[in-house]
Amino acid sequence: MDKYGLENVLTLTKSLITLYETGAVESSNKKVRDLMEQGLKECLDMQDTLYQAMKDDGMYTVENVAESAIKKVCTKLEGAN
Q1: 45-56 pLDDT, tens per residue?
Q2: Per-residue pLDDT band at 72 (split at 50, 70, 90)
Q3: Residue 80 has pLDDT above 80, yes or no
Q4: Which of 37, 40, 50, 61 is surrounded by the most beta carbons within 10 Å?
Q5: Whether the predicted pLDDT of 81 surpasses 70
Q6: Closest Cα to residue 11, out of 56, 47, 52, 59?
Q7: What's the rounded Cα separation, in Å, for the pair 32 and 38?
Q8: What whole-number distance in Å separates Cα of residue 33 and Cα of residue 25?
Q9: CB 38 within 8 A of CB 11
Q10: Using an 8 Å Cβ cutoff, are 42 and 13 in contact?
Q11: Which sequence spans correspond to the domains of the chain?
C-alpha cells in the first residue's frame, strides 16, 4: 500500500480508538466496557504497528526533542496539579 493509503488507514484507526475510548468511559455495563477496552487495546496496538512500519519505511521523520524541553513541559504540567 502507498503512503496515502497507509495514512488513511492510520487516520481511521485513530478515529476508531476515539470511539472505543468513549464507549469504555460511557458504558455502565461491565461486559460492554470490557469489550470496549479490549477493542481499544487492539486498535492502539494496530496503530503503533502501522506507525512504526511507516516510520521505518521513511514515511515519517522523527525529530528528537531536547531533554531540557521535555523537562520544561513536565515541570509546567506538574505545577498545574
Answers
A1: 999 999 999 999
A2: very high
A3: no
A4: 40
A5: no
A6: 47
A7: 10
A8: 8
A9: no
A10: no
A11: 3-80
Q: Which residue has cell 512500519? A: 53
Q: Which amino acid is at 41?
A: K
Give the distance, in angstroms, between the CA of residue 40 and the centroid of all CA atoms in the same chain.
10
In angstroms, the CA 39 to CA 24 distance is: 9
Amino acid at 19: L
Its sign, for the CA torsion 56, 61, 66, 71, is negative
In the numeric block, the cell 524541553 is attached to 69
Residue 9 has pLDDT above 80, yes or no: yes
Rg (CA), the chain: 17
> Which residue type, as a one-letter code, is found at position 8?
N
Cell numbers for 76, please give them.
509546567
Greater pLDDT, 20 or 61: 20
